[in-house]
Amino acid sequence: MTTRSVEAIIRPGAPHYVGDGFRVHNFIPGNQGANMQRMNPFIMLDYNSKYHFTGTEKPRGVGVHPHRGFETVTIAYQGKVAHHDSGGGGGVIAQGDVQWMTAASGVLHKEYHEEAWAREGGIFQMVQLWVNLPAKDKMSPPKYQAIKNETIPQVDLDTAGSTVKVIAGNYQGTQGAASTFTPVHLFNARLKSGARADFSFPAAYHTALLVIEGAITVNGKHEAPTDHFVLMGNDGEAFSIEASEDALVLVMSGEPIHEPIAAHGPFVMNTRQELIEAFDDFNQGKFGYLED
């Protein structure tokens, strides 16, 4: 088994707001090589690094917007988000929870700070990842996987509390909570200072790390501090991370989808014509109705 190298360690860029409730750093598509094709099936990653929101009576968030052709994966590290969609779905994503939404043929969606949490305010920290769908599944029916923290399978690495939570895919024989359309591995690795975790994925899989808390060393020599994104090469399978202080790391690896990407705003399809059809369907009300 060959070692997978570190291709780049990317610092967070200037944050921007999505709506008024999500202050994010964008890593995918990024300007240091992490573009849609390079990271496919991961086609967008917004990271709301730790940020304090003051209390407010009107919850902050993002109003009604459409999606088609991909999945959104929202991982809550701190804070709470309420969401609703045009198919009648909705719920609250609390600390440790994951919402895996398959937009596919199209939904209208809105997401806000959960009402009681918004009144109190506090530290907010979340990741939203967009996962591409293959052409054959882009127009499949929308669905949700609401994954509660306590239902996410966990692999214990030591007796000190170092763990890997398996959101999707497989780690050391433990199968993740989410079902996926193509092979995707998504883990939260929580390591005590000095602890090590080993990973191995096929060399062709696009692989990256996001340091949510603490700091790590990759392959014994590459240091990655809090809020940094580690882009791994495609030259090997195995790599290791070691916590130089207590750390929490989002690990992602997925089989690339070797199809054209035509993306504009909230639609990710394969051709320009399919994008035009998505806008037409949206404008004609075919995504349903959702009150703002």
Can you describe this structure?
With 292 residues, the protein is mostly beta strands. It is built from three helices and 24 strands. It has helices spanning 36-39, 115-120, 272-283; strands spanning 6-10, 16-18, 22-28, 42-53, 61-67, 70-78, 81-85, 90-93, 98-102, 107-113, 122-132, 143-147, 154-156, 163-168, 170-171, 174-175, 184-191, 196-200, 206-218, 222-224, 229-232, 238-254, 262-264, 267-269. Strands 1, 13, 14, 17, 18, 19, 20, 21 and 22 form a nine-stranded antiparallel β-sheet that branches. Strands 2-3-4-11-6-9-12 form a seven-stranded antiparallel β-sheet. The longest helix has 12 residues, at 272-283. The mean pLDDT is 95.
What does the secondary structure layout of this molecule look like, with pairings?
Elements: E1 6-10, E2 16-18, E3 22-28, H1 36-39, E4 42-53, E5 61-67, E6 70-78, E7 81-85, E8 90-93, E9 98-102, E10 107-113, H2 115-120, E11 122-132, E12 143-147, E13 154-156, E14 163-168, E15 170-171, E16 174-175, E17 184-191, E18 196-200, E19 206-218, E20 222-224, E21 229-232, E22 238-254, E23 262-264, E24 267-269, H3 272-283
Antiparallel strand pairs: 1-21, 2-3, 3-4, 4-11, 5-10, 6-9, 6-11, 7-8, 7-10, 9-12, 13-14, 14-17, 15-16, 17-22, 18-22, 19-20, 19-21, 19-22, 23-24
